[in-house]
Specification:
alpha+beta; five-stranded antiparallel sheet; 26% helix; binds biotin
Length: 272
């Protein structure tokens, strides 16, 4: 580890063997694609989803050139510093239940962060992971449907682990990395192993119909509950108070005139 001008330098290549060792008892993860550089792990996972890659295929990359975020945004990640992966799942979900896949991955990330860093990861609806009040990661869940059920689901995570946020880059919200918060280099193998093991456990609850326990755990990590937020959509922006979460993952908000209504993840961004 090198400390330069308040920056922690800890670039290393991931030891995939160490992650596989942690997952050797897994019954979910069946196939692994460890890639050095790809345009987007999400695109690769979707492509192999169209072919015959099995349920539980993990596409991991050290670096992406065309990483994508929610609502068409770019997801940038420096080489050797972060975690970038997409997980292909072949479970059947209805569109209105898909949010809970993102919820399972979000919770797994929060638990993994806590184990590895001692800090509580939190979730900003629908898909942002926060550490110490700043965005540390994001999840993008996409699906291909056959009629009303998913043919496959791809849930992708970008997590800032050993990255130094650039001062010169303007972001619309504060960003951080795990190493920035704990002031030391993080073993990405440990964090990835924890996240994948946690996701397997949570996803098995979800598949067994135990959504209620996921919902309770998710709400306990939900940083927006009761807060004033700015909702930004194509039709403009407005301030409101967050009052809860609907079963289909829509956010419930209360307008200044007292009316309560849902807002949908595909339609808006939120600012705290
Ligand atoms: C967001 O905050 O908007 C979600 C970001 C999700 C980024 C991840 S990085 C791995 C996977 N591959 C991509 O191109 N996007 C997701």
């Amino acid at each position: 580890m090198k400390v330069q001008e308040n920056q922690i330098e800890c670039e290393t290549l991931l030891d995939a063997g160490a992650v596989l060792e942690k997952l050797r008892r897994s019954s979910l993860y069946k196939q692994f694609h460890w890639l050095e550089s790809v345009p987007s792990t999400q695109a690769v996972a979707k492509q192999i989803g169209e072919e015959n890659a099995p349920h539980g295929t993990l596409v991991w990359a050290e670096y992406q050139t065309e990483g994508r975020g929610r609502r068409g945004r770019v997801w940038e990640a420096a080489k050797g510093e972060n975690l970038i992966f997409s997980l292909l799942l072949r479970s059947s979900f209805r569109a209105e239940d898909l949010f809970w896949v993102t919820a399972c991955l979000g919770l797994a990330v929060c638990y993994g962060l806590e184990t590895v860093s001692g800090l509580a990861g939190m979730i900003k609806w629908p898909n942002d992971i926060f550490l110490e009040g700043k965005k540390v990661g994001g999840i993008l869940t996409e699906a291909r449907f056959d009629g009303s059920l998913t043919r496959y689901i791809v849930s992708g995570l970008g997590l800032n682990v050993n990255w130094n946020p650039q001062k010169d880059k303007e972001m619309p919200y504060p960003v951080t990395s795990v190493s920035r918060e704990v002031r030391e280099c993080i073993k990405r193998e440990d964090l990835l192993g924890e996240i994948l093991q946690g996701f397997e456990r949570l996803f098995s609850f979800l598949e067994c119909g135990n959504r209620r326990s996921i919902e309770e755990a998710w709400l306990s990590r939900f940083i927006l509950l009761g807060k004033r937020v700015l909702v930004i959509g194509d039709g403009g922006e407005f301030e409101c108070t967050v009052t809860g979460l609907r079963k289909d993952g829509a956010l419930l908000i209360q307008r200044s005139n007292g009316t309560e209504e849902p807002v949908f993840a595909g339609d808006v961004s939120l600012r705290m």
